[in-house]
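FIELD: query
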Amino acid sequence: KQENSVEIFYKDVLRTWHQDGDITRETEHLYCGLLDEIGELASAYKKHVGYGKELDLVNVKEELGDIFYFLILFTKYQEKGESFRSRMFTILTSDKFCNKTPLKSSTFFILTESFSQIKNDSGNILLLFIMITEIMYFYNLTFEEVTLTNMEKREVRFPGGYTQDKATNRDLDSERKTLEK
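FIELD: result
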């Protein structure tokens, strides 16, 4: 049986998620974090099309991993969280991504529209997951590769787990070196 990479990633994500028991604060952090990461992915694309720079695939891979980080965390706060993670794994193993989506400006409008509906319809978590997965596959990346890189980056940032000090005093050079491996 194939190991469930979504559950492996989820368990590792929980190691570095700042939990203090204030569900309202935690979910607000989650919404802001996901929106921020979608914006960072858009920024990488903007630099490419707007300024003629080569698309920084190391950065794209990092932002995809960060988006997956926040998407998987949404399942922690959903009544059917385990079911959502199971469906995510099914999506990854289905090999039915016919409409591979490159980064383009319209992609970000679709992503933010789906994002804006998460509170009203938690099924949008899966829609966002599918869209991010399609972008990932377009750039010939795998979920395992993207999430492993994300886990390695977080290990550099939080070797013993989350602390406020480590969150605010990051070693960005070491993180980038890890991402470039």
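FIELD: remark
The two ends are 29 Å apart (CA to CA).
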